[in-house]
Specification:
The protein is elongated. Helix 2 (41-66) runs antiparallel to helix 3 and helix 3 runs antiparallel to helix 4 (110-124). It is mainly α. The chain contains four helices and no strands.
Length: 126
């Protein structure tokens, strides 16, 4: 592959009024929840640490693109980021099932919690 076929990307992405990607109002999702989503400090720390590493990895991929790194190398790193994001999603789902769903079952409102989980999975899964 020659240099003219390599990926390129502007250094900064800025939002304009006419952008066309979807934003989700997370505040309404939390407000509709039937119980507070309270998780242990250890669990939150573990998830935030993983997300911070992913954030750094994405910056590294951006740098690779800006430096015209070979496309296969960039794709390999994107695959690694996807894998890391999937791992975080797995941790969040596991936490939700063991903590939130279990708590909802004890409180007698599991149906609502399961419906919320199904709605989230519908958006999450391809």
């Amino acid at each position: 592959m020659n240099a003219s076929n390599r990926l390129t990307q502007p250094a900064e992405h800025t939002h304009t009024q006419d952008h066309n990607h979807e934003h989700i109002d997370h505040t309404s999702i939390q407000a509709d929840s039937v119980h507070p989503h309270v998780h242990s400090e250890e669990s939150l720390r573990r998830i935030v640490n993983r997300l911070s590493r992913i954030e750094g990895h994405i910056r590294g991929v951006k740098t690779m693109v800006q430096q015209n790194s070979p496309c296969p190398d960039v794709l390999l790193q994107i695959a690694a980021v996807r894998g890391a994001i999937d791992k975080v999603a797995r941790i969040v789902l596991d936490e939700h099932l063991t903590e939130c769903i279990a708590r909802a079952a004890q409180e007698g409102n599991i149906e609502s919690e399961i419906e919320q989980l199904k709605a989230a999975l519908d958006r999450f899964l391809p």
